[in-house]
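just leaving the lab so this will be short. what follows is a protein written twice so to speak, once as letters and once as structure tokens for the fold. can you read through it and tell me how you think this chain folds. thanks a lot i owe you, the record is right below.

___
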Amino acid sequence: MLKMMMRNIAASSSSYCTIRRCKGMPCLHSNSTLVVFANDYFAFLHSQPFKPIKSTRTQLEQPVRNSPKITTVEDAFNVFDRVLQMRPRPSVVRFTQILGQLAKLKHYSAVITLYNQMGVSGIGPNVYTLNILINCYCHLNQMGFSLSVLGNFFKLGLEPDVFTFTTLINGFLLENRVAEAATLLHKMMRGGNCQPNVVTYGTLVKGFCMKGNNSAAIQLLRKMEEGACKPGLVVYNTIIDSLCKDTLVDDALNLFSEMMCKGISPNVITYTSLINGVCKLGEWKEATRLLNEMVSKNIFPDVFTFSVLVDTLCKEGMVVEAEGVVEMMIQRDIDPDTVTYNSLMDGYCLRGEIGKAQNVFELMLSKGLMVNVVCYNTLINGYCKLKK
């Protein structure tokens, strides 16, 4: 029965939803086939003769420690139902663990369905349960429901924590509502009860950078420096990368120097962003200096660093040099990825060497690398230029 119903599941992350109450908790009703499946599944299970699982507390804890890893929606529903039938029934912690594992697999609609079943079964949520639920709604671009869950915290006498508000800020950013995300952060800062942490600040910094608002990101960085929550490497890396992408390399290098003076050590991500920035400006000497500097600090280039170099060299028509970088990667046991090879293909196509580009394409296939639409477009454009 379960397998038959599972075949009817359609992956749906954005279906029409309404809220109803399940023993004091908000439940999601949806017209998605996932919810139809869940309702049928639980109806089927509850129609069977009930045989409670008797166990001592020690036996009860065994499924928590030794439960199979949840890798599919079917796994989650099976484990959930097994735990639901245990007597005495496990605490909300066990059910929350199941929801958490499923959320990590990005099956957000399924998490909401299981949460609703918890409400039907009279299992009240804790802070962690509601945080998971908010996160799922945020990823489904349903901020209205996320904010409804926030209201439910207070109705249940629970206190939202910094993760709650950080998740909501991220949800606003996912919907490109940067102003509302910033407003929520300011409310946290003024409220006093739940102060933002470095992850909260970093989330909003990333949002500003994604919008190309580097000045707002830097202003937020300065606020962090003035307060108790000092910016870390991730925040600096985010802004440096954004500045480099906008070719504001001098500003990025100044921020890099400032970071170093404060005792924050750069990593390969920092240097890769800077190298990408200077390469875009054709500043090869500076790129070489940064490469030598990072190696001298025992920070070795990774596939992303090398891919930046290959891409820049190919766009400058320096394909022979790009081939040398790829050879260097292989010698260092760093496998070129799809991005690396596509840059090389593009370089060959720009020179009219379509045969070499085709060879790279076939090499990618032989290595089992993902050949995406960019790769095909590169090759097609190459053939079109030669009118083949």
About this structure: Residues 1-54+67-140 form one domain. The chain has three domains: 1-54+67-140, 232-298, 301-388. The chain has 21 helices and four strands.
